[in-house]
Amino acid sequence: MSDYVILRHREIPDIKQLKAYRTQGGFKAFENAVKNLQPDEVTEIIKASGLRGRGGAGFPTGLKWSFMDRNSWPHYVVANSDESEPGTFKDREIIEENPFQFLEGLAITSYAVGAEAAYIYLRGEFWQLAEFLDDKIKELEESRLLGKKLFGKKYNLKINTHLGAGAYICGEETALLESLEGKRGQPRLRPPFPPSYGLYGKPTVVNNVETLTNVPLILENGPEWYRSLGTDESAGVKVFSLSGRVNNPGNFELPFGSTYRELIYGYGRGILNDAPIKAILPAGASSAILRATDQVLDTPLEYASVKKLGSDLGSGSVIVIDDTVSMDWVINKTIDFFKHESCGKCTPCREGTYWMSYLTKQIASGDKKAEQVELLLEVANNIRGKCLCALGEFSVMGVLTSIERFPEDFGR
Amino acid sequence: MNELSAKYPGEIQKILDKYPPERKRSALMPLLFLAQREEGFIRDEALGEIAQILDLQKTEVATLVGFYTLFHDEKGGSYRIQVCTDLCCALRGSEEFLESLCAALEISPGETTSDGLVTVEGVKCLAACDRAPMFQVQSEAGISYHENCTVEKTLDLISSWKEDQT
Question: Per residue in A175-204, pLDDT tens?
């Protein structure tokens, strides 16, 4: 069996061709599910596998599926391929290189929740990727692996791509649904959550691309196999996107339980110019930033262990900072991102990110007067817990943790 | 006469077919991309035409153009070079790249070259953090990614566009 679960193209380069994918057993799991399993049985298998959402929140996937309201129809599945947070670039490689496994995962998920229509929401910049996927979907329809009365059963499935147009907020699932409905991508008040009120007000499962791509092999090899790959607490494998001041940035698929040291110094081949490592953003620009101590470097990459350090594993987008970089500059960059991407719906986020951008720019340009930093902390603390979606919360994480953990960079 | 409908009847139908007939507002963003294709920006009249196709108010169409950064309501260069200058790319030299590229083209970020060929601007994350400096090009042909870039290679690319135009 391949050493990879997700990035299988690293071993089987032509897996993006349907013929090669089918030679590897592709679409047998989907066929078997439709022919021999009840939808609920598929959901139970995914629950038992311990698979959690790979888009950042880490919510148990099978549990999410089981929340679908059975008194309201039709049901929809939406694949979230809006990855846009600095540090995150895994879904593009998955779709580009292993598209059929992703599409099979989406098809199985649709069957499990009784959806006969699924949408792939891609960020608008992935224009070429959408055209590529359209071709792959057409190929599947021609091979009778998608379409009507699949495998001689009553089940029909249509998959469509839909392009966003440049808005990070559309990665938030309710903003994504608004956008897919042809509106501004602004988050909805929750609850109700998408499994009861989603696309067009109908029950909807929104799953990340990487999450979905895990599904076919879990069905093929069983949930115990998947659990055996990770740790007791975090089952399976994860694609880590490694970027920043490392020699060999890129995507690396590792079983949960590997360490930051293995990721950064093994796969990433260490820091540029052998500079000392200073900080790690474990989950993209929204991270609670960690000082890269030996203890942090030797921490196993698991949801609970990273949480214990005072951060989150999130989407596994690891940004490495070396000692040539000052943290006040880092947070000015992250805040500028969130300021630009705030949808404007909630005042604390819309106004707060503006003020944090103004203040961090002043501080980063050398004006480290104590009152500026104090004001920055005050603004940040006034955003926390006061916004509809996570974007506001995300924007303050780097600010609060870098001032606390790197006081020397803020003249404190 | 609705110019957009007259020009792209097949493509409009293909877009509408993706969504339930009673939910055709979902076709709004794809139709805006279609309206933007030829000139690189969305003409004011196109807003009304899209509204007519989808039974919406013109303002409901216009609000999306303002919200999403890939839609433009003003003419730019035939090619928009959009350089990611977010954290991860900046850690690998993208800000210096943008500055040098603009200097070589004798423009400032956000400006268009005097021949109207190229607009260069800094943009937010394009999800290619491991291949910086990188940019996307928005043009009539759609959107394409260019990664691990140098100023020299980029100037060669621009020269090839110039040749295509003449």
Answer: 999 999 999 999 999 999 999 999 999 999
CATH class of B3-67: mainly alpha
Boundaries of domain holding A124: 8-229
ipTM of the complex: 0.95
Would you say A43 and A195 are in contact if contact means Cβ atoms under 8 Å apart? no
Are A180 and A129 in a shared domain? Answer: yes
How is chain B split into domains, by residue range? 3-67, 79-165
Question: A275 in contact with B at a CB cutoff of 8 Å?
Answer: no
The token pair that represents A61 in the structure block: 């996937």
CA B123 to CA B95: how far, in whole Å? 11
Q: Go through A136-173 and write b for each residue having 16 or more CB atoms within 10 A of its CB, e for each that does not.
A: bbebbeeeebbeeebeeeebebbbbbbbbbbbbbbbbb
**Chain center to CA of A386:** 23
Nearest to A86 among B18, B129, B142 (CB): B129
Q: Would you call A285 and B87 a contact, using CB atoms and an 8 Å cutoff? A: yes
Residue of chain A with shortest Cα separation from B50: A182
Interchain contact A127–B (C-beta under 8 A): yes
CA atoms of B86 and A295, how far apart (whole Å) = 29
Residue A2 within a domain: no
Q: What CATH number corresponds to the domain at position A172?
A: 3.40.50.11540
Please return the burial class of A174, using the count of CB atoms within 10 Å of its CB with bins 0-12, 13-18 and 19+: buried
Phi, psi of B112 (to 5 degrees): -115, 145
Nearby residues of B118 by Cβ (< 8 Å), 6 or more positions away: B77, B78, B79, B80, B81, B105, B112, B158, B161
Is A22 in the same domain as A142? Answer: yes
Q: Does one domain contain both A331 and A190?
A: no
Summarised one tens digit per residue, pLDDT across range A319-365 is 999 999 999 999 999 999 999 999 999 999 999 999 999 999 999 99
Chain A residues inside the 8 Å CB shell of B86 = 86, 285, 333, 337
